[in-house]
Amino acid sequence: MTVPYGFINLQNVYDQRVEEVGIPQINAAIDATLAEHNRQLASLMNLFAEQTTEYKVRYKTPTAARLQPLDEHGRARPIRQAGYYDVAFPLHDAGIAWGQTYKATQKMTVREAADIVNTLLTADRRWMRDHILAALFASTSWTFTDDEHGSLTVKGLANSDTDTYLIQTGADVGATDSHYLATASSIADASDPFDTIYEEITEHPENSGEVIVLTPTNLKSSIEGLAAFHPITDPNLNMGSQAVTVVGALNASLPGRLLGYHEAKVWIAEWKSLPDNYLVSITSGGPRALAMRQDMTPSLQGFNRVADRNDYPFFESQYLRIAGFGAWNRVGALVYRIGNGSYAVPTNYSSPMA
Questions:
Q1: Is the dihedral of CA 176, 179, 181, 187 positive or negative?
Q2: For the chain, how big is the Rg over CA atoms in Å?
Q3: Over its length of 354 residues, how does the chain's per-residue pLDDT go in tens digits?
Q4: Helix, strand, or coil (residue 191)
Q5: Please, are residues 329 and 287 in contact by the beta-carbon 8 Å criterion?
Q6: What DSSP state is assigned to residue 5?
Q7: 148-152 long-range contacts, CB within 8 A, separation 24+
Q8: Which of 41, 145, 288, 326 is the most exposed place for a label (fewest CB within 10 A)?
Q9: Phi-psi region of 348 (alpha: psi -120 to 50; beta: other; left: phi over 0)
Q10: DSSP state for residue 17 in the 8-state scheme
Q11: Phi, psi of 211 (to 5 degrees)
C-alpha cells in the first residue's frame, strides 16, 4: 500500500508499535498527511470545480459588444455585462471513523496506523469523485433544502432550459443549449464523436485551452482503433520513422491515464472510475464547469480529523468532510452517452447523492 505523506520519515519504524514510537509523533504524521491530501485534492479539483463559500451566485456570461462610432466630439456610452444565470450549491456533511479496543490499540504498529490513514483518504477521494460525477451527470435541476437559506435550485450542465449562452458564431444574443448528448452508434470511424465534442465545447467563448475527453475503460479499445487517434509514445519504445507520433504535451493534472491525441484537437485520457459508455469532456482553461461549496468557517473546510473518543475499552477517531457540488459554468463540460440514442443519468449517480 502507498506510504502516506506524513509517514514517509517513519518507514524505518514501520514494524514498531505506535506506543513505542509515540502517540504525538503519529498524530503529527496523520495531520501532515491530511494537509497534503487536501492540497493535492484541491489541485485536482481545479480541473472540474471552482471553490466557493457562497450558497447562491449569479454567473455572468460573456457579453457581445462592438465599438461605438464616434466623431471628434463624441463620447462612448457606458456598457455593462448583460448576460447571466443564477446557480446554487448544496452542502453535505459526510464522515468516516475508525476505532478499536484498548488492547488492539496497544498492539498496533506504525504500519497498521498508516494503512488505516490510507483507507480514510481513499474514502474521502471516492466520496468527492462520486459527487463531482453526479453533479456533471445531473441533466435536470433539483432542490436542496439548506438549513440557513431554505430551498435552493441546484442545476446541472446546460440542458435546453431557459438559460442562454453566448456562442462564437457572430450572434449578438445568447441561445439555449444542451451539453448532454447521446448516440445509438458505437465509436467507429464512421461514427466518430470527437469532432462533435470539440465543436460543441469550443463554441462558447468562456471555454479556453485544451479540450480533454475522459473515457471509461470499456470505450478505450474502440477509441484506440480510430484512424484519427494517435497514442502517446511509450518512452521505452523506439517508434518507426514512418509512424505518426504525438509531439505535444498536455499541461494538466488528470484523474486518469493519458492515452493519446485525436485529430479533432482533443486529448483523450482513460478514467477507470467513469461508468461504462459515458464520455466526459472539459477544457483546461476558462471557468470550471462546477463549483464546490464549502462552509464559510475555515476550520470546517477540507477533510479533517475532528474528534477522538477514548471510552475504555474502546477508542474512536472521527473524520469530517463538508462540501457540495453544483453547476457553475453550465457549458464548461459536456457529457456524451455512447450506444444509446437517449441520454439518462448513469445508475447510482442520481442527484441528490447521499
A1: positive
A2: 24
A3: 689 999 999 999 999 999 899 989 999 999 999 999 998 888 778 899 999 999 999 998 877 677 888 888 888 888 776 688 999 999 999 999 999 999 998 899 999 999 999 999 999 999 999 999 999 999 999 999 999 999 999 999 999 999 999 887 666 778 899 999 999 999 999 999 999 999 999 999 999 999 999 999 999 999 999 999 999 877 666 666 666 777 777 877 888 899 999 999 999 999 999 999 999 999 999 999 999 999 999 999 999 999 999 888 988 999 999 999 999 999 999 999 999 999 999 999 999 987
A4: strand
A5: yes
A6: G
A7: 148/55, 149/55, 149/56, 152/55, 152/56, 152/88, 152/89, 152/90
A8: 145
A9: left
A10: B
A11: -90, 130
Q: Angle 145-82-166 (CA atoms, 0-180°, nearest 5)?
A: 85
Cβ atoms of 111 and 14 within 8 Å: the answer is: yes
Number of Cβ within 10 Å of residue 226's Cβ equals 19
Amino acid identity, position 52: T
Grid coordinates in use for 110? 506504525
Take residue 64 and report the three cell numbers written for it.
457581445
Side chain identity at residue 219, one-letter code:
L
DSSP 150-172: EEEEE--S-BSSS--B--SSS-S
Burial class (CB in 10 A: 0-12, 13-18, 19+), 70: exposed
Residue owning grid cell 430551498: 151
